[in-house]
Each structure stands twice: as structure tokens, then as C-alpha cells.
Description:
- The chain is of the alpha+beta class.
- The chain has one domain: CATH 3.40.33.10.
- It contains 12 helices and 8 strands.
- It has a 4-stranded mixed beta sheet with strand order 5-7-8-6.
- It is globular.
- It starts with 6 loop residues before the first strand and ends in an 11-residue tail after the last helix.
Amino acid sequence: MSALAGMMSPSQVKADDLPAGMTAANTVSITKKVFVYNRKQSAKVNAKRKALINAQNELSALKGKINGDELVTGGASGFFQEIAENSSMSEAQKNDAATAYGVVNGQIDAPSWYGQYVNLGQASDATSLKNLYATLPYYDQYIKIRQKYNLNIPQVSLADVAVAMMDADYSTHVIDHARHYEANENLAWNVPDDPNSLWMSEESIWNKGVKKNPSLEQYRDDAYGLSQVDHDFAEKVGHYLNLTDPATKSYGYGLNTEHHKYDNTESWDAGYGEPAFSVNEFKQLVTDYYNKIEQPDQVKAPKIR
Length: 305
């Protein structure tokens, strides 16, 4: 016998149960969900669904309060949740969103530093909706790089986006790689407009190194192997090799704008999740959600074409 996971029992917030200045008109409905194990799905999928449902129920206690234009419960978290619950999405897309939701809420693969460095949904955090929206140009930049080198165009994984957010949060405070998630990772600081160009500038270092030692060419698609034979050189060209790796199938970006040693932190992660969305699909979903949450009564951001 099989059963659907996530049966919903909706309960609307009452106006007299809201903080001052809030009404039922500017809140969202709350739903409480019950997890039921589905024996037709894998243990991994069930675990992701259960983690998502538990996290949603915890967040529902916040009653969908609105802080300025952005949901306190939300930012990117609300975006991932909406996709995970969208019946028009494929199962792979919903599962990808469920994983992303669990990651940013510290429910899946949570690092020890989650509570210290992640400020879910806050304006400067990588999980804010504004910073998610601000990363959209990075995807077009990446596509141009892949096209220039006649490489495949990977799809976006929301799980990769989520771990990129976590890595950007960590590296805002610690100027180093987090090395927590099983993913390829690039980092940059203070290049919010185009971090890809900075990473790709390592190509000249690669070309000079290969010219001097042609045997290094065999490691173009094997960054790990390169690190074993020439660690110092690998450190100098690793970002470039990551962006031009033909094996990349999924990826995502993160941006933290909290000022510490630097004004902002940019991250790219690949390979943690599964390919789920074309770049245009992803950009349109983010843009639509951004318009709905951040500027519902203002001029809408342009549609992605």
C-alpha cells in the first residue's frame, strides 16, 4: 500500500493573532503537513521529503510574518519551498527543491557552523531573495564561457544553489573554502558583477604552465590529479579548470553582501545536486518569485526571454 507524503491541513492566520501593523491581507496561509513513508520511493527521497516537511512545520510557527517586503521565514527558502510544492514541476525538480530547502534550513547535511554564519533570509545573507536575484547574470556569463569552449551547457540544480549560498555565508566570515559539501567550489570576494571573469583570468596561467611543462595538459579535465602532481599550480588554475570542466552537469551560484573583511562574497558550486532546470527556466522562476515577494505593488522586473 502506498500513501502520499505531505498531506496538508491548512489553517489561516487570524487577524487578531497578528503582531501590530499586520493584517490577514498581508500574511500568508499556514499549512501543517504530515509525513507518510512512501514505500515506492527510495529511502533517500523519503528522507528528503521528511526533512522538508519537518522544516516547513517549524517555519509555519512563524506565521508567515512579513519583514518589509521579504518573508522572515523565507527569502530563498520560500522560493525553494514553493517549487517543492508546485504540482506543475516534475518529481526530479520537486525533489531538487526539497533538498535545497533542507540545506538552507539546516535540515539536510548541516555544517557545524550553520547557526554561526547563516542568517536565513536576512537582507545581506546569501539566502536573501535579493541576493538570489542578484546572481542571475552569473548564469549568462557561465553559459558564454561554456559556449566559447564548445562545452555542454549544464543545468541548474537548486541543491547546488543552496550549497553555494552556504559556502558564501561561511566564506564571508572565514576567508577560505568551507570544504563541507561534496561539490566543486569556486570563491571570490569583491567582484559582485562578474566573478566568472576573475576565475577565467587563470587561463593565462594555465597556458603558460602547459607551455613550460606540456605533460600538464593531461590534467586539464582532472583537477584532482593535477593537485597530486603539482599542488601549487593547481591552486593557481583550479577556478578556471572548474568552470571549463566538461564533466559538469549541474551547478549554482551564491552571493553574500554582508561586510566583514570584504564587501561581498561570491561562490559557484557544482555536482552536489542533480541537473533539474534549464538556465532560462531557473531565471524565470526566480524573477517571478522576486516580483511577487519583493515588489508586488511596484513596476515588475522584466521577463526573461
